[in-house]
Amino acid sequence: MSKGFVSGLMTGICYLALQSGAYSQEQTEPQELGPIVVTASRSEQSLDEVTRSVAVVESEQIERAVADSVTEVLRDVPGIKIIDSNVAGMKRISIRGEESSRNVVLVDGQEISDHTSYGAVFLISPSDIERIEVVKGPGSVLHGSKAIGGVVNIITKKGADRAVQVEIGTTFDSSTNGITGFSSAAGTIDQWDYRFSASKSKHGDRETADGTLEGSAFENQSVTAYVGYTGDQHKFSIKAERFEQESEVYTDPADIGFVMRQFDMDLPKRDRSKVGLFYDFTDVNESIAKIHLDGYVQQIDRVALVDYELAPPGAPVLKRENKTESELLTFGLNGQADLTLFDNMLTSIGFQAVQDQLDKDSFSTGTTTISVPGPVFPVNITERDEAKLTTLSAFLQNEWDLNDDLTLTAGGRYYFVASENKGTAGDRDESDQAFVGALGLNYTGFENFALRAHVSQGYVYPTLLQSTLGSVFSPAGKIYGNADLDPETSVTAEIGARFDSGNLIVDASAFYTDAKDYITSVDCDAAVHGSKCTANSDIYVNIDAAKTWGLELAASYQFAELAVTPYANITLMRRQFSSGATNTFDTDTPLVSGRLGVMKSWAFDNGVEAYADLYSRFSSEHRQKDGSGIDEADGFATLNLAGGFSYDFDEKRRLKVHAAVENIFDQDYKPSVEELTAPGRAFKLSASVIF
User: Fold this and answer.
1) What is the distance between the alpha carbons of residues 268 and 249, in angstroms, rounded to a whole number?
2) CA 83, CA 479: separation in Å to the nearest integer?
3) What percent of the chain has pLDDT over 90?
4) Residue 95, pLDDT above cutoff 60
5) Measured distance CA(494)–CA(405) in Å, rounded
6) Burial code of 286-298, b = ≥16 C-beta within 10 A, e = fewer?
7) Which residues, including other chains, have CB under 8 Å from residue 299's CB and lie 6 or more apart?
8) Per mean pLDDT, which range of 39-43, 342-346, 356-360, 506-510 is the poorest?
9) Using CA atoms, how far apart are residues 512 and 516, in angstroms rounded to an integer?
10) DSSP class of residue 487?
């Protein structure tokens, strides 16, 4: 598909944008939107009723993003930053400045487990997603550990509203010459519904305004199968998923010098397989409104390859070829009952049991040259580790309607965590227990206006990598696990307001987070950390803390007669990082970032609906301080244009086309220190047909 074709299509969309008189007059009246249902409180509520800061991304927004990953769909949500750590195919997100490992990623309420030091990758195809709900701030009370930053719940597509509905589609991205194909068959027959889907995506090296990023290619593929039954009070469903991903790792040529003569890294496997079961029993009796149970078995397989050559002045020359294989098997069970024991009060009680079993094999071969010329010693190291982490927890939350306008929500969760390890670090068993709480208020006494306030605690237990197994072999040496690590904790307070008059929608939040006992790695000192420390090795320790202040704003206004909607998504944030006696605001957190735009829509009499969206993404500078100095990414502002149309052939057949030209002025910039250089001017196109 040529760039000229996509450019021509975008020109056509721009032409439509100038013909403002052509749309149907039936669209000149504002449309009342029904309440948006979210799961921030693990029960159905509208956004006006929640006490938390919540962002909802609907299926239409996901389609219009023409995204190569789920993270790209979330890029413009206030408070969210993308992190890829030089791996374009394995993007993660940061919520309110917290690292990816401090966020929970759920698929239909079930966690994507991850025990790396980086955090969970979104191992799911965007074409399988119905909506995404982002709960910002600690979610450890209702959604388990690892939720200091927030919770992302991905809700997948289920059945269709007729017996058989088939969708076939494709996307194209000129910045990687990336092609994606996807298809699905879904339907509902009597009380049964089903969905089967498949997708395959292949992306080459990224083209930036400054050239090609060699080693940034990636590809993935997925298949899913879902079957459900809905009765008068009972609902059963089962879903099987398989997602396979392979990514190259970009290495900046500037990092290859005299000391580091060579560095090549490849991630040929990051695969996820899962089978989940779900059961709901509604309107049980006068005292029990709902009972929910779900369980799952999930396996995530990883392979990492690292080849390097180190030649430090006056030190041995090291040549290594390293391979790490790991298998993470997770068993999970969740249960919840919503009780109506008293008037004006809803009580939710529940439990969670999760066990992660991790098997890891590490291989290192190569040579060590003491001096040049000099003796060369072969190296052949094999390590095998087995570790297990069991988390048992129970929660209770009460929601009181104090009057018609004021609701108080309070809850708590008790954790018991046990870890076991057998392997190179020795046999070790550790355990911990903790209690976290949350308190929230919501007031709806003003017309079209809701106020909220919330205080919550966060709790993250060390991963198996941090507490026992340690890292893969790397040029920096091995990073040892530490059984004496304390869990990471946090307290967040926020206030917010939501105004929705139909035409004008404004949602704003101000928050403050105090997080402690962050886990990081430092030089392994035998005098401090024991005799296991070796040359060029690190160890995980609790050393850091962070304080974060922020303001998030999402606003839009619809000029009904023109069908024009200007909008703004803006984040103001400051994050202070403490490490020992050092305090710094250089934490890869911009002072201001967001998206400003204006959207125009049409509905024609012949069944065609169209839209055009002109917008700018922007950010102030990012600065990050680490042991080697300060890395900096300059501020930027890009201009982008998106648009598309849909055409209903009849009640069953529909064509949808979405297109975009991003970074119109071909700017060379990095969205953040922890993300690769952004694509240059890029054309994107997606097309699908439903029949």
Assistant:
1) 10
2) 22
3) 67
4) yes
5) 20
6) eeebbbbebbbeb
7) 272, 273, 274, 327, 328, 329, 330
8) 39-43
9) 13
10) P
Query: Over the stretch 243-265, which tens digit does the pLDDT of each residue have?
Result: 999 999 998 887 777 777 888 88
At residue 138, the pLDDT reads 86
Q: Which of 116-125, 169-178, 234-243, 532-541 has the lowest mean pLDDT?
A: 532-541
Place of tokens 């339907």: 187
How far is 394 from 630, CA to CA, in rounded Å? 43
3-state secondary structure of 126: helix
* Residue corresponding to tokens 């701030």: 137
**Residue for token pair 């305004």:** 209
**What CA–CA distance (Å, rounded) separates 670 from 656?**
32
Question: Which residues does 29 contact at the CB level (< 8 Å), separation at least 6?
Answer: 560
Q: What are phi and psi of 70, to 5 degrees?
A: -65, -35
Residue 285 burial by Cβ neighbours in a 10 Å radius (0-12, 13-18, 19+) = exposed
Rounded to a whole number of angstroms, the distance between the first and last alpha carbons of the chain is: 24
**What phi and psi, each to the nearest 5 degrees, are found at residue 421?**
-140, 140
pLDDT tens by residue, 473-487: 666 567 888 888 899
For residue 360 the two structure tokens come to 């890891």
- Is 276 in contact with 156 (CB distance < 8 Å)? no
Rounded CA separation 276/175 (Å): 36
CA distances from 251 to 152, 254, 308, 477 (A): 30, 9, 12, 18
User: What mean pLDDT is predicted for residues 22-43?
Assistant: 50
Q: Report how far residue 172's alpha carbon sits from residue 159's, in angstroms, rounded to the nearest whole number.
A: 27
Q: Which amino acid is at 193?
A: D
Distance, in Å, from the CA atom of 414 to the CA atom of 396, rounded to the nearest integer, reads 9
Number of helices (H) and strands (E), helices first, in the chain? 6, 37
Angle of CA points 153, 158, 160, to nearest 5°: 140
Q: Can you spell out the DSSP letters for 11-43? A: HHHHHHHH-GGGS-GGGSSPPPPPPPEE-TTSS
* DSSP bridge partners of 406: 443
| 138, 191, 680 from 240: Cα distances, Å | 29, 20, 38
Strand partners, 440: 409, 454
Read off the tokens for 64.
């219009």
Give φ, ψ of 148 to 5 degrees.
-70, -45
Single pTM value for the model: 0.91
| 97 phi-psi bin (left φ>0, alpha ψ -120 to 50, beta other) | left
User: Can you tell me the distance from the alpha carbon of 410 to that of 253, in angstroms, rounded to the nearest whole number?
Assistant: 53
